[in-house]
Amino acid sequence: MSLTASEVKAAGAALFRAESSRVQTGLLTIRHPGMDMDDAYAVQADFVARKLAAGGRIVGWKIGLTSKAMRDALKIDIPDSGILFEDMVFENGATIPGDRFIQTRIEAEIAFVMNSALRGPGVTRADVVAATDHVVPALEILDTRILRKDPDTGVLRKIFDTIADNAANAGIVLGDQRHPLGAVDLRWAGAIVSKDGEVEETGLGAGVLNDPVMGIVWLANRLAEYGQGIDAGQVVLSGSFIRPVEATRGCLIEADFGDFGHVACRFA
User: Are 216 and 235 in contact (CB under 8 A)?
Assistant: First the structure.
């Protein structure tokens, strides 16, 4: 790590203030040019600790950058992860207050609900299958507590900014249809994602590491490096198979997964 303990705390505090005030903070990678992945996860952990101290309750995990195209664009060779809190969960069809988030985008994903814990290292695909209670269609609500672009230099945020920012995680909408994991080939579980009735994106589950189950394998084994794991009852977003869709105020976002289900939300 290149950041000191006090720098990590300052960055975590800035993210927490940004979420509370809905005013973005500056790019951490400009403030700390030597920042690396360990630094980013340390800042994320500080931010999460602040949310827990404020009464937050962890309900699961999200996995990001599971698409090879996105990893190539960001010049990174592994996915990233963030933490889901109880106040991030919205019902299918919910209307989300327009002032809840800062710069909102939406991704379509497959969510896993776990019936038993997963602790790495050495977690396998078979372990994930055995530990999964059911899978559901889902939307992930992305937000950015860090500026996407520095206004003075035009420099864009980097992957370490995003990881520190809880992997841009802000919310989740779960569909109503539950499926046993073995009943569906998730590689072929796809969605048509529309904004106000106009198709914006389409994709298949195979876009997630060629198999969304492998996203859960990756997460369980990565968490083991930090002495963490996935708990029974937690929800895990396995990763998006579409590009993010901008969610403006007043819009309706719908993801039609065909027989797998339908999930939607509206922004006031």
Answer: no
Q: Which CATH number belongs to the domain containing residue 71 in this structure?
A: 3.90.850.10
Residue 151 inside a domain? The answer is yes
pLDDT in tens, 72-130: 666 677 889 999 999 999 999 999 998 999 999 999 999 999 999 999 999 999 999 99
CA pseudo-torsion sign 71, 72, 75, 78 = positive
What are the pLDDT digits (tens) for 27-69? 999 999 999 999 999 999 999 999 999 999 999 999 998 877 6
- Residue type (1 letter), 56: G
Residue 10 tokens read as 């300052």
Tell me which residue has tokens 């980013």: 40
Closest CA to 94 of 22, 170, 168, 174: 174
Straight-line distance from the first to the last Cα atom of the chain, in angstroms, rounded to the nearest whole number: 41
Q: Residue 236 belongs to what domain range?
A: 57-267
Please name every residue paired with 171 in a beta bridge, in sequence order, or none if there are none.
141
> Which phi and psi (to 5°) does residue 94 adopt?
-65, 150
Distance of CA 203 to the CA centre of its chain: 17
What pLDDT band is residue 1 in, cutting at 50, 70 and 90? Answer: confident
Give DSSP secondary structure letters for 75-142: T-SS-EEEEEEGGGEE-TTPEEPTTS-SS-EEEEEEEEEESS-B--SS--HHHHHHHEEEEEEEEEEE
- Cα(231)–Cα(118) distance, integer angstroms: 6
Contact call for residues 203 and 190 (beta carbons, < 8 A): yes
